[in-house]
Amino acid sequence: MDQSELYVEQPLVLTEDIYNGVAQILDDLQAKTGAKMIIFCETNGYPVVNKGEIKGVDLQTISTLAANNFSATAKMASM
């Protein structure tokens, strides 16, 4: 059994203070960049905090795609 088979993803648990801190960082990032939408998600693609114009946007799908893209890039970088 190799190391990748031993990896079990733990759920992201945020205290209220940490959640509020992340939300504030996203607010600041949105103000500085002019981004229309910012999503902070778990590595499994579950959206945790989002800011901006999300009406008509499938957050779950976008978060999942972003997480999978990140995972694929990280795997290629480790090769």
Q: How do the helices and strands follow one another from N- to C-terminus?
A: HHEEH
**Strand count, sense and closure of the main sheet?**
2 strands, antiparallel
* Helix content bin: 40-55%
Report the structural category. Answer: alpha+beta
The number of distinct β-strands equals 2
Globally, the shape reads: globular
Q: What is the CA-CA span between the terminal residues?
A: 19 Å
Indicate the radius of gyration in whole angstroms. Answer: 15 Å
Write down the oligomeric state: single chain
Q: Mean pLDDT, rounded to whole units? A: 88
Strand residue percentage: 5-15%
- Unreliable residue runs: none
- Trace the largest sheet across and list its strands: 1-2
How many helices does DSSP assign? 3
Question: Can you describe this structure?
Answer:
With about 80 residues, the chain is of the alpha+beta class. About 55% of the residues lie in helices and about 15% in strands. The longest helix is centred in the C-terminal third of the chain and has 20 residues, at about 60-79. The radius of gyration is 15 Å and the shape is globular. The model has no long low-confidence stretch (mean pLDDT about 90).
